[in-house]
């Protein structure tokens, strides 16, 4: 196939996208595909029609404009098959507040969504701090409503830390999520479609050398110990896999995604869904795929083949505007 790999982008995750994209392009070439790497910058929208010459697009644009439904909507209009979830699932997963509300409605006995509140800058008052603390408790987590790779995420153990972190992220983003802090085993459940069937890969346990699995722990060699498969009893492991798969299907995710959470006292505390997970040499999904018996080259070939055969917008639109 003739494939365009969309990498880079305009978000704060640009460098990770470049690393993921270049690795993907190299793997696709090894699998015999004709591949062009396209670095998406601010002016890319004016040249978007160049994508019509490709059979499929491997979208690995993390964060804003690549993962939040906007690029997906453009590719839908063009009728070009692309990797990852469609517009609705992408919007839902990238919005942590809406995603929490959605997952809360799923009935699974092992599933818990930690308590959370949305705080908006234009409605923030000094007494908001005490009201949040009384509702959520301490310690707590502050994170942007729409962001990836744990950028802007703070674990706060004191009121001063909380107030400083909240005001900082409200200034940066205008909105923030304040969530109950859950201490336990950090895990991630990766799912890929194989012949249109969502397949759950072995659960990966993350043991970061920092307080939590933040940006540095994610992308710096030696900063995290990876336990694969996760140190969980078999029954609990299967229940968590079933829960992650239910979330994936209910949200309408496609091709590949990750469901992240914390395990404590036999419960799975949901954190987020990542619809365009990292594909660097340190990324979680490729590790889980390898443990399942799928090497990196085969993994990206499976994903792009699924995208071509089963694009997020459905086969009827393919080529409609070409």
Automatic annotation (TrEMBL):
It is found in: Cytoplasm. It is an enzyme of class 6 (ligase). It catalyses: 2 D-alanine + ATP = D-alanyl-D-alanine + ADP + phosphate + H(+). The active site is at residues 13, 149, 283. GO terms for cellular component: cytoplasm. Binds 2 magnesium or manganese ions per subunit. Pathway: Cell wall biogenesis; peptidoglycan biosynthesis. SUPFAM superfamilies: Glutathione synthetase ATP-binding domain-like (SSF56059), PreATP-grasp domain (SSF52440). Its cofactor is Mg(2+); Mn(2+). The keyword Manganese applies. It comes from the Bacteria. Residues 103-305 form the ATP-grasp domain. It holds the Pfam family Dala_Dala_lig_C. GO terms for molecular function: ATP binding; D-alanine-D-alanine ligase activity; metal ion binding. One of its GO terms (biological process) is peptidoglycan biosynthetic process. InterPro entries: ATP-grasp, ATP_grasp_subdomain_1, D-Ala_lig_Van_CS, D_ala_D_ala, Dala_Dala_lig_C, Dala_Dala_lig_N, PreATP-grasp_dom_sf. Keywords: ATP-binding, Cell shape, Cell wall biogenesis/degradation, Cytoplasm, Ligase, Magnesium, Manganese, Metal-binding, Nucleotide-binding, Peptidoglycan synthesis. Mg(2+) 2 binds at residues 272, 274. NCBIfam families: D_ala_D_alaTIGR, PRK01372.1, PRK14571.1. Belongs to the D-alanine--D-alanine ligase family. This is D-alanine--D-alanine ligase. It comes from Fervidobacterium nodosum. The gene is ddl.
């Amino acid at each position: 196939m003739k494939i365009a790999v969309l990498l880079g982008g305009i978000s704060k995750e640009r460098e990770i996208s470049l690393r993921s994209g270049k690795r993907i392009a190299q793997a696709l070439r090894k699998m015999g595909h004709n591949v062009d790497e396209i670095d998406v910058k601010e002016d890319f929208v004016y040249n978007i029609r160049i994508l019509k010459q490709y059979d499929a697009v491997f979208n690995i644009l993390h964060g804003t404009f690549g993962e939040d439904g906007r690029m997906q909507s453009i590719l839908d209009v063009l009728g070009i098959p692309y990797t990852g979830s469609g517009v609705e699932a992408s919007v839902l997963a990238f919005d942590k507040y809406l995603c929490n509300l959605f997952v809360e409605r799923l009935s699974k006995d092992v599933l818990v969504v930690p308590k959370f509140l949305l705080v908006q800058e234009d409605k923030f008052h000094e007494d908001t701090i005490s009201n949040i603390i009384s509702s959520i408790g301490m310690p707590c987590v502050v994170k942007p409503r729409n962001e990836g790779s744990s950028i802007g995420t703070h674990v706060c153990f004191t009121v001063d830390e909380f107030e400083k972190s909240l005001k900082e992220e409200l200034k940066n983003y205008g909105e923030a999520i304040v969530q109950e802090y859950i201490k336990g085993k950090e895990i991630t459940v990766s799912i890929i479609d194989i012949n249109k069937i969502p397949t759950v890969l072995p659960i990966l346990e993350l043991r970061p050398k920092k307080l939590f699995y933040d940006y540095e722990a994610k992308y710096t060699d030696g900063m995290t110990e990876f336990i694969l498969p996760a140190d969980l009893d078999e029954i609990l492991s299967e229940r968590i896999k079933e829960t992650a798969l239910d979330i994936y299907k209910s949200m309408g995710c496609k091709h590949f995604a990750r469901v992240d959470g914390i395990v404590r006292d036999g419960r799975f505390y949901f954190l987020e869904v990542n619809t365009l997970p990292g594909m660097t040499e340190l990324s979680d999904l490729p590790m889980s795929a390898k443990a399942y018996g799928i090497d990196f080259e085969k993994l990206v070939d499976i994903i792009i083949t699924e995208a071509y055969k089963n694009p997020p917008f459905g086969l009827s639109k393919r080529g409609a505007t070409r």
